[in-house]
Write the structure tokens for this entry.
Amino acid sequence: MKKIALIGSGGSGKSTLARKLGEKLNIEVYHLDALFWKPNWVMTSKEEQRKVQNELVTQEEWIIDGNYNGTLDIRLNAADTIIFVDISRIICIYRVFKRMVRYQGKSRPDMAVGMKERLDISFLKWVWDYPKTKKPIVLKKLEQLPKNKKIIVLKSPREVRLFLEKEG
């Protein structure tokens, strides 16, 4: 595992897993949210997103945390390992609320400086709808990958914890 793409719903624990895995494996972690969101919640263009990711994936080692399905193929094709954090939406919603309370008016560690946490109804809806709208797309993309790719699906906080213990 030298090139790791971490994907999953908001609130699934991707960023925390990426950070902990990066520490254990001594691999640089890139949070796409931190790279793609500018102050005041302004999103970078798709062209800029592609450019940044195409540069990142040329490195020898990396962990890239984030969804961005429009550019997901860049990461999936370059990764040797894909970790899909497939946690229930109830847990994800709970974690999103917990995160919103914890970081209200402050920037999260996995976000760009100046990006203050806020309550965002459209994001909550995206998280709630993820299992029926985004997950099928992700699963189809994973099925189409070459067999030499290591695909890990973690379905519970316990599986995530055990994975980290094993990989460490």
Q: What stands out?
A: The mean pLDDT is 89. Helices lie at 14-25, 32-36, 46-56, 72-78, 89-103, 121-133, 135-143, 157-167. The chain has one domain: 3-167.
